[in-house]
Amino acid sequence: MWETLFGIANTLALIMWAALILLPRWPALLAAVLYLGVGLLCLTYAVCVIGLVSGVIPGGGEGGADFTTLEGVAAIFATDAGVTVGWIHYLAFDLFVGLWIARDADTKAFSRFAQAPILLATFLAGPLGLILWLLIREGRARKQGRWQ
Fold first, then answer.
1. Quick check: 130 and 116 in contact, CB under 8 A?
2. How far apart are alpha carbons 26 and 23 in whole angstroms?
3. What is the mean pLDDT of residues 96-111?
C-alpha cells in the first residue's frame, strides 16, 4: 500500500511541476496545480496522518510519535508509512512554494527562462530554490529602488 501511494504522489507532483515549468500559466493551469496538486497532496497527507495516529491505518510503528529527539524522528521514518507520509509532506510544501515563486516571478516580470532554474532548484531541493528566489527578487528590488 505505501509503495503504491508513494508512487502515485511522486507521479502527481512530477506532472504538476512539469506543467508549472513548461506550460503557459493560464489561470486554469495555476488552479490545477494548486487544487489538484497541492490540495490533493495535502488531503492525502492529512488522511494518512489521522489514520495512522488513530490506528485506523496500520503501519505507524510501535508507540507514539516522538518529534523531540533525533532517535524519535528516526523511528518515525524507519517505517514505510513514515517515509511515505513524510515524503508527501515535502512534495506538497515544495509544490506550494514553487507555485508561489512562479506567480510572484510572473507579477515581477521575470522571464520564464530565468524562472526555470529557480523552479527546478525548488523541485529538487525545496529550500535551496526558495532562498535563491528570495535573494534574486531582493536584488532586483534594490536595483529598482523599491520593494514589493
1. no
2. 8
3. 95
How far the first Cα of the chain sits from its last, in Å, is: 46
Question: Domain residues of the chain, as ranges?
Answer: 2-144
Q: Which three cell numbers stand for residue 47?
A: 488522511
Share of the chain above pLDDT 90, in %: 68
**DSSP 8-class letter at 39:** I
**Listed residue (106, 87, 101, 107) closest to 129, CA to CA:** 101
Task: Say whether 73 sits in a helix, a strand or coil.
Answer: helix
Q: What is the mean pLDDT of residues 78-89?
A: 92
In this predicted model, what pLDDT tens digit does every residue of 19-28 receive, in sequence order?
A: 999 999 999 9
pTM: 0.87
Distance CA 89, CA 80 (A): 14
* The three three-digit cell numbers of residue 78, written as one number: 524507519
C-alpha cell at 117: 532554474
112-124 and 126-144 helices, crossing angle to 10°: 150
- Residue with cell string 525548488: 122
Report the distance separating Cα 46 and Cα 123, nearest Å.
Answer: 22
Q: At residue 53, what is the residue type?
A: V
